[in-house]
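anyone seen this seq b4? input:
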Amino acid sequence: MENKARVRLYGDSCISSPRKGSEPSVAAPVPDRAFDIRRNRRTTPKNAGIRAVVVSGIVAIAAAVILVAAMALVYSSDHASTRQDIPTGTLAPLPPFFLVGFTYDQGGAILGGCAINITDVTTGAWNNTTVSDISTGYYICDINNGLAGGVAGSQVINVTAVNGALSGANETTLPSVLPAFVQMDITLTLVVIPEFGSYMVPIVGMIGLVAVISFLAPRKKNK
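predicted toks r here
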């Protein structure tokens, strides 16, 4: 059996066990490849160019977001007190409060097409743009926005209705806490001139009768 050289490792050198009668030989040092790989990784980061591009993109996006947010803040501060759906110079609408009712004739039948005039007796504000429905006699008006300055609890509201020679009126004091609406129906009657009311007819008739009798009665001749 042939004598095979036995190899022993000492650090970076490889020493062969000599055969009998020969000198030991030393092999060339074996490089530490694992150390070289680790060193290369530390000194030359992998994908360094890609990382730089990604970081630059993130910074650019953040700057754009900050710029847009600043512009939106300036715009909102300039338009915070302006309602785009309300014409310039007008007040915002008040919460609605409705005055509703029906118009009737003196017999209790529906009488439509009546001109309605609503007056806030407390403030003097008035509105005469409402007309009762021609077929149902129903009228409705948002008096909180229809009367100048709006209305409040405990104010006195007067409603009149006119249709040709017929007219009528109704008046009420609003509740201290306003509900959603208040109903005020109106009955219209024939307009009577106060100076010549029905109570004046018999008086005028008696005066006329006396005048006629006095004129027709024979007068006594003077002696």
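Residues 7-42 form one domain. The longest strand covers residues 98-105. kinda curious what u guys think
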